[in-house]
Specification:
Chains A, B: Pfam families: Histidinol_dh. The structure is a homodimer. The first copy, chain A, is an alpha/beta fold. Chain A folds into three domains: about 150 residues, Rossmann fold (3-Layer(aba) Sandwich); about 180 residues, Nitrogenase molybdenum iron protein domain (Rossmann fold), CATH 3.40.50; about 35 residues, no CATH class. Chain A contains 18 helices and 14 strands. Chain A has a six-stranded parallel sheet with strand order 1-11-10-9-12-13, with helices on both faces. Chain A starts with a strand and ends with a helix. Chains A and B meet through helix 6, strand 3, helix 11, strand 13 and helix 16 of A and helix 6, strand 3, helix 11, strand 13 and helix 16 of B.
């Protein structure tokens, strides 16, 4: 059973602090292994990637060529998928694409009062690597969420890596890759795949940015290659925080809480409500539903270890608390969510009203499901088209306005002891 | 003397690759020291910060209170600054502020064809720490460049840390802090300051994001606290790449190259030109100017070790090369820069035309001088107002449109084996 807290009880603040500080990361120490693998891939290229892949994924490929997924394989995979599933995937793709197109920033320049031209030129990253986990966590929805924004941004080359342990690949992952416009697919994973994307090999040209979720080895490898390439966030276990008033169907709230809990034993589900009755009813509903949930073992462990039901005096207090948690997902299951929205400060995504379960955003809502975890919504945002473009700032002076602002630059360069800086301005002032 | 390359020579591609691959980082191994300091600050708070500060900065403070800079100290510092310098600083501040206000993103929501509401809510990071180096590299311009965008973004609390070795503080740094709206200033630096900002102490409340340049200890500490807080980029040594046609004053180009070289022995200055004559003339002008430059030692070492003059057949080829270097600063010193701009793909900032020396952007241009180095302009952008805000995505369904897109979500949840996800949607479909 989850922990139950009430703002009326003594020691509430301490309990909240303990909950905020609870460590949910499984900190496997894999960094030294990853360092060696990366070094090996950087120096030996294809040969190293091939060896690690055969070893870790129990494969027997003789060359990197064999690890490249062919068009025929993709078509064969797509052919075996039921039409209803493909249609659902296409709906998700189209809605994600449509929403992410609205996120494209526009380049602009303008002249200020003295005629200095300033601006920003947005351009797409040229080549992106997308990591897709193998096995059970090989989700087609994640392929769409990572690839579509890159494609919309204008990335020319999108390289997908996905391990195929025992030579098994999820056909839906291949279908999602084809649908969303992946350029190349390799059946490789782990730190060796991250290394291949970052440094390049004889077969795989290097990319400029690597995105996508992975296990501890993948995360450690991404941290290590950061700088050589860009990376997205390092995703932690999933979270949901539901702010609910008394007028909720407790079963709806319960299943929303369980939809995060079923992800991972270290996922976290929190209900904050101003209703003691709802708190009690949801607690019972969770237990009831756990008896029929296929992934009940995982969900129960998460709920027991990290779940929480918190009652507060009013919904404003609920928002103050929610902002401290900075949850990945925030549901506002209340009568008047628009009254609470302006009080929302830190959250990866907000799901507004009783008819917007978080899972709709995981698949077909159109927004991205790659969101900041572990309270990082205090300072970061979810994946969007913006993560696949970069901004070059632009500055253009002419002799007249350089003469107006140049002397101040010379003064500041002098006091900072950077004389060549000053000279580079002053040498132009008398022309 | 810098290396000279010509696209006409055999082996040109190999030489360019070697230049691209040259390591300019001074990789001091400080990580284990930093780990211990951070752990100490996290567990012992003020006491640890005080001890490290007294030790490393040769101070004798008895409490953290003594390390907090008072309003009186700031006013005394400002009072001793010449009016001309303060005016130059104010001009820089106002121009930076004005430009960064244009970067503020706007929240929006919209309804799609079936009435699903989607959107993005931008909010400011609540508290930001700004690291300012002490000693010689204590630049007031950097204070403005890091603080003003945070202030414009709406950050409520901006905490500046700046070490004061031997109890010496640069008054201009204090003036810039006051001018730009810093909330609190502490005379602390190094990993201990980064730890205090990230974890908080009895005196210093924790922040959500830390920005600003620092030495190897500061960079290592920022890498380590990343996740607990957000960080800006890890800045490497400075770079300039000048694309120039034949009609340039070689002295202007030479001093622009030297304005980066004087920063750091591992800075890099590159000229790419289609004119053999200009290449020769700039080479001579650099040598000539080095004889009279105060920071000639630093500049000469940088120029000799990492400088390059590259001649190519035409300016289009120059842009192709420049995109491979992805320079922090790109100057287009050519007759028709607008013809080259559309070919620019990777650069932190572009300075357009002969009357826009890079140094104008360091101080008074209005754009930010914190820019991606070490080829990271391939995947990242300079500092802007955007780095101090974060986006919460918004989704709102109603019973009707949930009924339209919900079944596809249920289908996808089923194939991914996440039944609670599916249930959270289907339970709402019959209501």
């Amino acid at each position: 059973m989850a922990i139950k807290l009430s703002s009326k009880s003594e020691g509430f603040e301490e309990e909240i602090r303990a909950l905020l500080g609870s460590k949910r990361e499984t900190s496997e120490d894999v960094d030294h292994i990853v360092r060696d693998i990366l070094h090996d891939v950087e120096t030996r290229g294809d040969a190293a990637v091939l060896e690690y892949t055969n070893k870790f994924d129990r494969m027997s490929a003789k060359s990197m060529d064999e690890l490249k997924v062919t068009e025929a394989e993709i078509e064969a995979a797509v052919a075996q998928i039921p039409a209803e599933t493909l249609e659902a995937l296409q709906l998700a793709h189209d809605r994600i694409r449509s929403h992410h197109q609205k996120q494209l920033p526009e380049s602009y320049t303008y002249k200020d009062a003295i005629g200095v031209e300033l601006g920003a030129i947005w351009t797409a990253v040229e080549a992106v690597g997308v990591y897709v986990p193998g096995g059970l966590a090989s989700y087609p929805s994640s392929v769409l969420m990572n690839v579509v924004p890159a494609k919309v941004a204008g990335v020319e080359r999108i390289v997908m890596v996905v391990p195929s342990p025992d030579n098994v690949l999820n056909p839906l992952v291949l279908a999602a890759a084809k649908m969303s416009g992946v350029s190349e697919i390799y059946r490789i994973g782990g730190a060796q795949a991250v290394g291949a994307l970052a440094y390049g090999t004889e077969t795989i040209a290097p990319v400029s940015k690597i995105v996508g979720p992975g296990n501890a080895f993948v995360s450690a490898a991404k941290r290590r290659v950061f700088g050589t390439v860009g990376i997205d966030m390092i995703a932690g276990p999933s979270e949901i925080l539901v702010v609910a008033d008394k007028d909720n169907n407790p079963d709806w709230v319960a299943v929303d809480l369980l939809s995060q809990a079923e992800h991972d034993p270290v996922a976290q589900s929190i209900l904050i409500t101003d209703s003691e009755e709802l708190a009690q009813a949801v607690e019972e509903a969770v237990e009831r539903q756990l008896t029929t949930l296929p992934r009940a073992d995982v969900a129960r462990q998460s709920w027991n270890d990290f779940g929480a039901i918190i009652t507060v005096d009013n919904l404003d207090d609920a928002m103050v608390l929610s902002n401290r948690f900075a949850p990945e997902h925030l549901e506002l299951c209340v009568d008047d969510p628009d009254a609470l929205l302006p009080k929302m400060r830190n959250a990866g995504a907000v799901f507004v009203g009783r008819y917007t379960p978080e899972a709709i955003g995981d698949y077909v809502g159109g927004s991205n499901h790659v969101l900041p975890t572990a309270r990082s919504a205090r300072f970061s945002s979810g994946l969007s088209t913006l993560e696949f473009v970069k901004r070059t700032s632009l500055l253009r002076c002419n002799p007249e306005n350089l003469a107006q602002i140049g002397p101040a630059a010379v003064t500041l360069a002098e006091v900072e002891g950077l004389q060549a800086h000053g000279r580079s301005v002053s040498i132009r002032l008398n022309h």
